[in-house]
Amino acid sequence: MALKTLSKEETHAMRKRLIGQSCRLFYSDNPVKIVRARGQYLFDEEGTRYLDCISNVHHVGHCHPRITEAAAAQMDLLNTNTRFLHDNIVLYANRLASTLPRQLCVFYFVNSGSEANDLALRLAQQYTGNEDVVVLDHAYHGHLKSLIDISPYKFRKLTGQKEWVHVAPLPDTYRGLYREDHPDPGQAYADTVRDLIEEVHEKGRKISAFFVESLPSVGGQIILPRGYSPKVAEYVRSAGGVFVADEVQTGFGRLGRHFWAFEQQGEDFCPDIVTMGKPMGNGHPLACVATTEEIAKAFTDNGVEYFNTFGGNPVSCAIGLALLDVMEKEDLRGNATRVGTHLKMLFRKLQSRHHVIGDVRGVGLFLGVELVTDREKKTPATKTADLLVKRLKEKRICVSTDGPWENVIKFKPPMCFSVDDADLVVSCIDGILTDLEQNCPDLEKDNIGRD
Question: What stretch or stretches form a coiled coil here (predicted)?
Answer without folding.
Answer: none
